[in-house]
Amino acid sequence: MQLLKDFSKEYSLFAAIIAYFGITFFEHTLVASTVGNLIGFAVLFVVIIYAAMSVAHHAEMLAEKFGEPYGTLILTISAVVVEIVIIAIMMVHEHNPVLARDTIYAAIMLDINALLGLAAIIGGIKYGEQPYNVDSSNSYLSMLLVAIGIAMVVPHFMDAAHIENYMMFNVVMFILLYITFTRIQVASHKYFFEYEHEAEEVCDEEGHCIPNPHKINGWYHSVNLVVAIIMIGVLSEVLAVFMGNTMKTFGLPLSIAAVGVAIISAAPELITAVRAALDNRMQTVVNIALGASLATILLTVPAVILVTRYMGMDLNLAITPVQGVMLGLTLLVSIVNFNDGETNMLEGFLHVILFVVFVYLLFI
């Protein structure tokens, strides 16, 4: 009975089902006009973000049950799966070879500059400085440098005749990198990604207490997590139609759509990161922001390579000069900022400024 009672509160699932059947029933009418496209796009985008909040909730419950770094690992993998699903669906609809590249670039900008920067500002205002394990940031950033260089920089200097073979080589390499790094994260060097506070508060200022891990139903939250991701994928297939039409109507670059995909996939992480910053859990924020960026590269790249190869579509992962400069600045500032084991408001402000520049450059 308790399960049924809990399930009856899964409002985002019911909203997603209602939105899907409602929008698909009126789809032909809505796509026929600009206003209809905007309505369909807005409704689906809001419902997908709502479903993403459900993903964040269930991932948080699993995080409480299994502890770190398993919790953030579950959250980042969930977000990346959402991202891969949406990218694949939109690539099939738009046949744009750079959509995956632009989405990966946007996701890294969102995760490191917007998410981590905003969390550092919020935490800095409330606590001044927030400690974390510097070994985690060093590990993530070194992996990010290697992964971005291999997947998105090296292709600039290769002959076109060898690109296809190099991409398949990357599939194997990235899968091995992810398996190796995950094993290090959850087994041999698990302590790199943990930070023990001197005192852990059981309840927050509003009286909301952390659930007892032993009382959390892992199966319930796991199933609902998977269902929420599936619903996001189903809704995204319909969203791709309205988004494509809206981009063409207003003459907007497809890179804006790529940012939309990144926002949807990063929504659960952003919600969780802000909550963690308010609770003085900067280690969780670092694990989410840098871990999500790394997972985006190591999982999305092989996935889109295999999907495009199977579908017979073109794929271009080589970053533009502007994207290269922005990624280089982001990683350089991150290396300088995250080398002392503490974050503050100034460091967060620098990353937010980089994100503002990223948004401005989208329209140039």
TrEMBL record:
The keyword Transmembrane applies. The chain crosses the membrane at residues 12-32, 38-58, 70-92, 104-127, 139-157, 163-181, 223-244, 250-272, 284-305, 317-338, 345-363. It is a multi-pass membrane protein. Residues 38-186, 225-363 form the Sodium/calcium exchanger membrane region domain. Gene3D superfamilies: NCX, central ion-binding region. It comes from the Bacteria. Keywords: Membrane, Transmembrane, Transmembrane helix. It is found in: Membrane. This is Calcium:proton antiporter. It comes from Sulfurovum xiamenensis.
